[in-house]
Each structure stands twice: as structure tokens, then as C-alpha cells.
Amino acid sequence: MKQYLYLTLLLFTTCGSLYAEPKEKDPIDIAMEKSVEKNGSTQGLVLAHNEAEEKWKKEIDRALTELKKVMTPEQWKALQASQKAWGAYRDKEFDNLMEIYRAMPGTGSGPRHSEKEMELTKERALLLRDHVEDVSHGKVLREQ
Q: What domain range includes position 142?
């Protein structure tokens, strides 16, 4: 009986994700893909990842600026602590990535390394974007 229940649950969860609306690609990702199309060499990939990472860093800064405007002082203080901790984590993870990919043979390790660093920065930027939306929405609800 448990097997049928599990199979039914798996079927329903899979079907829902198959028909979910695909998310639009972010303009930063689109620009990176175009850059890779123009120059798909090892150097081109690293350059595309590095350019995208710089744009994601700017997105983090933009989100933080926006959040400071809409957060309560308590929320802002908590976010500052979180951002400081994330920065320390990011730095340690970048050190870790350097050690991992430095030991790998071949030219593929460079693009893989730059991609992982970019993805880490992108994840934080997207999280902060969500915070902007959530906090702004909550502020509107509180003001009603």
C-alpha cells in the first residue's frame, strides 16, 4: 500500500512541475549567453562569467540600496549581519574553489571555476531581489 501511495505522490508532483510556467531568463544571463556565443573559447567563457559576476554584484548593491529604503531598522540590522556573514562565506568558498580547480588538469577548469564563482554571486543577488519584493509587498500591506 505504501508503494502505491508513494507512486501516486511522485506522479502528482512530477506532473505539476512538467506543466509549470518556465521562468523568463534574466537579462544578465542572456547577455552572458550572447557573449559565449560570440567567443566560446576558454578565455571567452571565463570573460563571460566574470562580466556576469560583476553585473550580479551590482544587482546585490542595487537590492541592498532598495532594501535599506523599505526595511524597518531591525530588519536592516539583521540583513547587514546576514550580508556580512555571506561575504565571509563567499570569500572562504572562493578560496575553496581556487584549491579545487587549481588541482584539475586541462583548460576546462578555468571556465568551471569562474562559472561557480559567478553562480554563488548570482544566488545571493536573486535572494536579495526576492527580499525586496517580499519586504516591499509587506510594507504595502502594513500601510493599508
A: 82-144
Output the nine-digit C-alpha cell for 17: 512541475
Q: Does some domain include residue 126?
A: yes
Q: How far is it, in rounded angstroms, from Cα 110 to Cα 116?
A: 10
The tens-digit pLDDT sequence of the chain (144 residues) is 555 444 443 444 444 444 444 578 999 999 999 999 999 999 999 999 999 999 999 999 999 999 999 999 999 999 999 999 999 999 999 999 999 999 888 888 999 999 999 999 999 999 999 999 999 887 655 555
C-alpha cell at 12: 502528482
Q: Which three cell numbers stand for residue 81?
A: 549581519
CB 133 within 8 A of CB 67: no
What pTM value is reported for the model? Answer: 0.80
Domains of the chain: total = 1
Give the DSSP letter string of 50-106.
HHHHHHHHHHHHHHHHHHHHHS-HHHHHHHHHHHHHHHHHHHHHHHHHHHHHHTS-S
Distance CA 140, CA 61 (A): 23
**Neighbouring C-alpha atoms within 13 Å toward the C-beta of 95:** 6
